[in-house]
Amino acid sequence: MITIHAFKNGKWEARQVRGETDLALPEGAVWLDLASPGEDEKAFVARAIGADVPTREEMQEIEASSRLYQENGAVYMTATILSRLEPDHIDAAAITFILAGQRLVTLRYTEPRPFEVFAARLRKGIAGGETSPDLMLGLLEAIVDRLADIVEATGNGANDISHRIFRQGKGPGGLDLHQAITDIGIEGDHVTKLRESLASISRMVMFLGQAAGPHLPAQDFPERLRTLGRDTASLIDHVGFLSSKITFLLDASLGMINIQQNNIIKIFSVAAVVFLPPTLIASIYGMNFAHMPELAHEFGYPLALGLMVVSAVLPYVYFKSKKWL
Predict the structure, then answer these.
(1) For residue 164, what are the domain limits?
(2) In this structure, are 242 and 105 located in the same domain?
(3) Which parts pass through the membrane (predicted)?
């Protein structure tokens, strides 16, 4: 599907085109948003802007030369953008931006929320800007704002896990460390995808300011671009901090599991030592020799039982005094 955003009569209008590839672009068309397009739709846009549209396989390539380049007067930039599909699942997908003259083309196979939000703001007239570079920068700002929200949510998730590990673990109900490790893994996956997305956007902003400079307006665009670069850098630093924190929480959880296992092994070890002397006494008096004086004693049986109890209690008291139990 193609959504065509055109600036006409002082306002933005959006028109959706699905399968109709023989139409001419409306007057004032600036932003062509391709969402999971077919080959006919991609060919239609390529003819309209006079430049090739990359394939989905080309978008997945990770080397910088395949993601950031200029060709036939058009500037191609591909970044990894995040979409929150569920509260505990984030999807990372490549999105390509093409600056071709007065038109901006976005090619995507996902539904990131910043695109929907920015398009709504554009229709309401509060997004600002009328040119393709303005729209592209506005989109990037909306994407970075959304990434900042995801970074904040991930930080809150890490804080919640930390509270559960170090506070709730002391309560009567204890702590489900297996669930904690699962949650840590989810937050760690989020951090990895955030780092990948922010790194790709940072490279894209740098390329946009350097290689694509002649295509950009000279008004407030450079300052907005520098601000966006600083925001991206600060988010990358914060994501690095979150990565270290999640690694610490994982190590702490695994350490607590080891402590629990050691406590269980210690209990069995102490139990074996406590019951070893009574077992020895029972073994001695269980031998079938013909002449064992204690067996003929009137109080031999209760004395043997008492000796077994004492031999079990003394090690237990000793271990308690050493705080081994």
Answers:
(1) 2-259
(2) yes
(3) 264-287, 299-319
277 with 149, same domain: the answer is no
107 plus 14 within the same structural domain: yes
* Same domain assignment for residues 161 and 287: no
Distance CA 236, CA 192 (A): 11
Torsion sign (Cα): 60, 62, 64, 65: negative
Name the phi and psi angles at 3, rounded to 5. -110, 120
CATH number at residue 72: 3.30.460.20
| pLDDT at residue 300, rounded to an integer | 80
pTM across the whole model? 0.82
Model confidence pLDDT, tens digit, residues 35-58:
999 998 998 999 889 899 999 999
Q: b/e per residue, 5-16, with b = 16+ CB within 10 A?
A: bbbeeeebbeee
Residue 242: predicted pLDDT? 96
Per the structure, the count of domains in the chain is 2
Q: Are residues 298 and 218 in the same domain?
A: no
pLDDT tens column, 84-95: 767 678 899 999
Amino acid at 75: V
Query: Of 259, 275, 294, which one is at a domain's C-terminal end?
Result: 259
Q: CA distances (Å), 259 to each of 177, 182, 266, 291, 324, in order? A: 12, 19, 10, 51, 14
Size of the chain, expressed as the number of residues it contains: 325
DSSP code string of 279-319: HHHHHHHT---S--HHHHSTTHHHHHHHHHHHHHHHHHHHH
Q: Rounded to whole angstroms, how far apart are CA atoms 97 and 78?
A: 6
Which segments of the chain have a pLDDT < 70?
Answer: 19-22, 85, 87, 128, 168-174, 212-219, 325
Question: Is residue 27 located within the same domain as residue 128?
Answer: yes
The span from the CA of 202 to the CA of 53, in Å, is 23
Contact present, 110 and 128 (Cβ < 8 Å)? no
* Predicted pLDDT of residue 84: 76
